[in-house]
């Protein structure tokens, strides 16, 4: 009997402990993991927002991820001769974090989140519209991430299965070829084009989000990177025809670079930032920060604006770009208004525009600007020690919102990643590649030129496809998109690094002068044409073959035994492989 009582007591204790375990088996909402999250539509919507958040990091578009491609091109040079120097000279050794690691790291954060969404979404019950919106945005953002990973780093691991992160053998993935990566980009964008609503259909929901138009625009970009002009052209024509929603050029070119005209009719896709002063106070420079008080701005202005006004003064517009603007005047005799919005220079002509609220000078007297605390009577220095012309786009020099530049993640101007003008100029390029110079191609270009009152181009001025390509590549696109992200990618897809005459042209475009002085001995911002005889150097004179791409960071290579360096790590010339597949148009003189 005694033993029976003991046995009953033991059973009671076991039962009590088991019941206690059941009561304590709950999920702490503050310590959720990827295993127990994402099983509802609302939770997946939160992950979509988290994926968008990652394109606003320093390595994606909050600073260096945006400006690295600009300085890789011929429209921007490193006026500080410090921070971006390895990327301006295209000879990074692979040990510089800002370009060799930060964009790589931050874009894989986007890949990780989008892979997570796509691993969960098929198992969650929701309407077809909700499914298409969630999955479509994830596919677009993953394609966006791989587009920048491959155009920056050439051959990177292609990871599309979230489960692969749980196994060390698959997490440490090897390089995929650039063609394999672009095949995946095209596959993702093709689905996103079908799944996402247009900006018109999406209404308020579409403000700041990926739409079918954004996916179509990036599909055309991806196709054109591999010279698939016959496939890209119909997509561009459909965008123009309104198949993916209504897009049009803004009457005022400057509306593409201001806070109060964001997500406008010209924008296919842009990165959303909080207006200046409306975010928190914490600057989240790294992806590990999750502060609820983040500033939620970008630091592109800190690199682009004048050091005389308080910026870091790292990057300046090239004298070539400035003088390209000066070669043509508008039909009313004024300067091309895109110069005003692209570069911060003082022009004598400005005195003739007083009180004229024009597209170029919408604030009345263009000489007055609260940033300068006085009338602008000289071109401010990009860098106080080295000179250079400061860049206006995305800066307060033209927005005129606050009296002093605040460095860091403070600027609230949304970065427009693709605009309708890009669709038109790409359509002209495709038409020229397929059919040679035609009136159709000229008409696409003239739509962009008429916005800024430049005289129409005439078909008779372009005797060959080579001539019209030269006009598109080295006149129309630099003036429309000067100092924006994308020029370096264009130079690669056109093969300009792989032909000696084209490389010589880049060297000429990249000439700069260090610390030029006036007669009084003061450093000035040189706006004269710079030649081989007058230049201090060129951004392209130190170019090493293979370094049109950025090298993979050496620490990443050390950590992943399956990963190899790319052409920049190995200094391998990509010219032979490029010429086997694609055509490089020769340099021709324009009349």
Q: Could you walk me through the main structural features you see in this protein, from its secondary elements to its overall organization?
A:
- Residues 1-24 and 364-368 have low confidence and may be disordered.
- Helix 2 (41-53) packs parallel to helix 8 (128-153), helix 10 (178-195) runs antiparallel to helix 12 and helix 13 packs across helix 18.
- The protein is globular, with a radius of gyration of 26 Å.
- The strands form five sheets. The chain has a two-stranded antiparallel sheet. The protein has a two-stranded antiparallel ribbon with strand order 2-8. The protein has a two-stranded antiparallel ribbon with strand order 4-5.
- It is mainly alpha-helical.
- It has 25 helices and ten strands.
- The chain has a domain at 41-246 and 262-271: Serine Threonine Protein Phosphatase 5, Tetratricopeptide repeat (Alpha Horseshoe).
- InterPro entries: SusD-like_N (IPR033985), SusD_RagB_dom (IPR012944), TPR-like_helical_dom_sf (IPR011990).
- Its main location: membrane.
- Residues 1-19 form the signal peptide.
- Keywords: Cell outer membrane, Membrane, Signal.
- It comes from Marinilabilia salmonicolor.
């Amino acid at each position: 009997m005694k033993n029976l009582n003991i046995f009953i007591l033991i059973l009671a204790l076991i039962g009590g402990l088991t019941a206690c375990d059941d009561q304590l088996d709950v999920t702490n909402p503050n310590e959720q993991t990827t295993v127990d999250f994402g099983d509802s539509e609302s939770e997946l919507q939160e992950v979509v927002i988290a994926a968008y958040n990652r394109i606003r990091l320093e390595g994606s578009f909050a600073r260096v991820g945006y400006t690295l491609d600009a300085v890789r091109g011929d429209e921007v040079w490193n006026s500080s001769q410090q921070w971006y120097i390895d990327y301006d000279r295209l000879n990074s050794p692979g040990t510089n974090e800002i370009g060799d690691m930060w964009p790589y790291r931050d874009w894989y954060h986007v890949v990780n989140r989008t892979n997570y969404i796509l691993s969960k979404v098929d198992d969650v019950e929701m309407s077809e519209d909700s499914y298409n919106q969630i999955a479509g945005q994830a596919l677009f953002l993953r394609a966006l991430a791989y587009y920048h990973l491959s155009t920056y780093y050439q051959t990177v691991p292609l990871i599309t299965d979230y489960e692969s992160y749980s196994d060390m053998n698959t997490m440490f993935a090897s390089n995929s070829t650039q063609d394999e990566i672009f095949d995946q980009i095209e596959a993702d964008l093709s689905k996103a084009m079908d799944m996402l609503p247009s900006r018109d259909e999406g209404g308020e929901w579409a403000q700041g989000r990926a739409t079918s138009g954004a996916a179509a625009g990036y599909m055309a970009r991806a196709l054109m990177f591999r010279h698939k002009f016959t496939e890209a052209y119909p997509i561009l024509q459909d965008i123009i025809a309104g198949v993916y929603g209504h897009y049009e050029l803004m009457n005022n070119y400057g509306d593409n670079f201001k806070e109060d005209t964001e997500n406008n009719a010209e924008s296919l896709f842009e990165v959303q930032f909080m207006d200046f002063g409306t975010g928190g106070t914490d600057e989240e420079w790294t992806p590990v920060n999750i502060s609820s008080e983040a500033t939620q701005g970008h630091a592109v202005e800190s690199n682009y604006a004048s050091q005389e006004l308080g910026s870091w003064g790292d990057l300046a517009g090239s004298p070539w770009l400035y003088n390209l603007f000066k070669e043509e005047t508008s039909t009313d005799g004024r300067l091309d208004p895109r110069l005003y919005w692209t570069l911060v220079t003082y022009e004598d002509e400005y005195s003739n525009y007083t009180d004229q609220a024009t597209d170029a000078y919408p604030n009345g007297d263009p000489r007055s600007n609260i940033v300068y605390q006085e009338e602008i009577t000289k071109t401010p220095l990009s860098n106080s020690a080295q000179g250079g012309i400061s860049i206006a786009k995305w800066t307060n020099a033209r927005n005129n919102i606050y009296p002093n530049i605040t460095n860091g993640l403070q600027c609230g101007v949304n970065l427009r990643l693709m605009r309708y003008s890009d669709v038109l100029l790409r359509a002209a390029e495709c038409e020229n590649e397929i059919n040679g110079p035609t009136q159709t191609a000229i008409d696409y270009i003239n739509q962009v030129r008429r916005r800024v009152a430049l005289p129409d181009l005439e078909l008779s001025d372009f005797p060959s496809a080579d001539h019209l390509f030269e006009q598109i590549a080295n006149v129309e696109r630099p003036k429309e998109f000067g100092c924006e992200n994308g020029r370096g990618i264009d130079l690669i897809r056109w093969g300009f690094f792989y032909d000696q005459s084209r490389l010589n042209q880049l060297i000429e475009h990249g000439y700069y002068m260090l610390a030029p002085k006036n007669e009084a001995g003061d450093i000035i911002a040189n706006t004269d044409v710079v030649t081989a005889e007058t230049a201090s150097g060129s951004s392209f004179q130190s170019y090493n073959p293979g370094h049109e791409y950025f090298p993979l960071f050496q620490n990443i290579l050390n950590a992943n035994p399956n990963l190899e360096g790319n052409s920049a790590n190995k200094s391998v010339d990509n010219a032979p492989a490029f010429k086997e597949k694609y055509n490089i148009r020769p340099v021709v003189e324009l009349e």
